[in-house]
Design brief:
binds adenosine-5'-triphosphate, 2 domains, Rossmann fold, 40% helix, alpha/beta, six-stranded mixed β-sheet, disordered C terminus
């Protein structure tokens, strides 16, 4: 269980990106975080693992208050939170396998990782994960030889090999085409289900969020203005989150995508 209590972040510039946010995410639950640019989505995700230091409030992961940890304890606690990034954050000149194994850096000692001597069980798990995401045959390729969708699959494996309790996912599909975006969202949500993993997925594409997750949280100006199932996102609610827009088009898009996905499944 992840719990945020009155989580607040004011940057040095004076921008208050989060205003006393309270949020509970039960173990194994996947939720999408939506909201307009600047609403505080990235800040919220990054305050959880303290890549951004919250100004006030608490973050609890099960019985650990992450906001109260010193550097060493925080490093250990971060093993329990895998992160997936929009721009993949792979090391381009390393192979797919080496990039996946780098997810174990928080566990193996410095010299072992420096010499890239990972324990055999880590290597076995990396092969298993690559097989699961359909990239086994690419294990020895350099990261810079991959397509965007393939890179994101490597990013997913790197996060999962940490064996986390929680995935923090920041715009996983923003650099991908619509079909690859759906494949990646489907993969992330399936893997979470298989592993009983909780996830917070920061995503711009409302239709994609509605299609794949059971709970959507809407942020506006650093506050939660919606928290509910995807079908609760009525045009009025979307206007409250994003401002005036023709929402019928977005909602219809879900239906069209649905038809297309049935087509895909039949392929
Ligand atoms: N490093 C920073 N220094 C100062 N202000 C920042 C910093 N990062 C974010 N902000 C401000 O905090 C607010 C929230 O930004 P954040 O990036 O969390 O929003 P977001 O919802 O993720 O936006 P986007 O969808 O565009 O990524 C914005 O007003 C932004 O300008």
């Amino acid at each position: 269980m992840l719990r945020l209590k009155t989580l607040t972040k004011t940057y040095k510039t004076g921008d208050t990106a989060l205003k006393a946010v309270d949020l509970e995410v039960p173990s194994g639950q996947v939720l999408a975080l939506i909201g307009p640019s600047g609403a505080g989505k990235s800040t919220l995700i990054r305050c959880i693992n303290r890549l951004v230091e919250p100004t006030e409030g608490e973050v609890w992961l099960d019985e650990t208050e992450l906001t109260g940890l010193g550097a060493g304890a925080l490093r250990r606690a971060r093993r329990e939170m895998g992160m997936i990034f929009q721009e993949y954050a792979l090391v381009e000149r390393l192979t797919v396998m080496e990039n996946v194994l780098s997810g174990r850096l928080g566990y193996v000692g410095f010299w072992r990782s420096f010499l890239r001597r990972y324990p055999q069980k880590d290597v076995d798990e990396a092969f298993r994960l690559l097989d699961r995401v359909g990239l086994l045959h690419m294990a020895d390729k350099r990261a810079d030889e991959l397509s965007g969708g393939q890179r994101q699959r490597v990013g997913i494996c790197r996060a999962l090999i940490q064996d986390p309790k929680l995935l923090l996912v920041d715009e996983p599909t923003a650099s991908l085409d619509p079909k690859t975006s759906r494949q990646i969202m489907r993969l992330i949500t399936e893997l979470c289900r298989e592993r009983g993993l909780a996830a917070i997925i920061n995503i711009h594409d409302v239709a994609l969020a509605q299609r794949f997750v059971p709970r959507v949280v809407g942020l506006r100006f650093g506050e939660i203005v919606f928290d509910g199932p995807p079908d609760g996102l009525t045009p009025d609610k979307l206007t409250e989150i994003y401002g005036e827009e023709d929402w019928e088009a977005t909602i219809e898009k879900v239906d069209e995508d649905e038809a297309e996905s049935e087509g895909e499944a039949a392929e």
